[in-house]
Amino acid sequence: MPRIVSDIDGTVLEQGEPLQPVIDWIKANSEEVVFLTNRPEAERERTVADLERVGIAYQELIMNDSGEEAPVFKAKVVAEMLRKGERVDYFIDDSEANRDAVEALGVDVVDPEDIEGMDGSEDDKSEPEDAGMAEATFSRPPIGDSTMDL
Hints:
By secondary structure, this protein is an alpha/beta fold. Helix content is about 30%, strand content about 15%. The protein contains four helices and seven strands. It is globular, with a radius of gyration of 15 Å.
């Protein structure tokens, strides 16, 4: 299962409300989660409370106290992870500029809008056909996914 680095605002939360399709996809398809946010360190307490409402277990919360623009900050953090030999299988962020900056490092990126169920259609609330499958799916299966169309 992958190690996912995820943004918070616009990705797992929208105006303080959980974005359930993305949350479900992350929970079903991740081994480890690192949250990488442009929120400043001064907002850590509020951010931790927000993440408790989201309900995703995470290994690390990295916040931007450098004042750098988000694409520069996020690419720098991911580059450092890779330099240390840490896996970054997917980077999820609602900002195209942030995704582009990280994708340039060779990391697979995910636009939360590409996760099934983000369009708000009524059939998104239906039960999954196979209880062993993730409720929300991405257009490309995660690394290590053994499902296949028969």
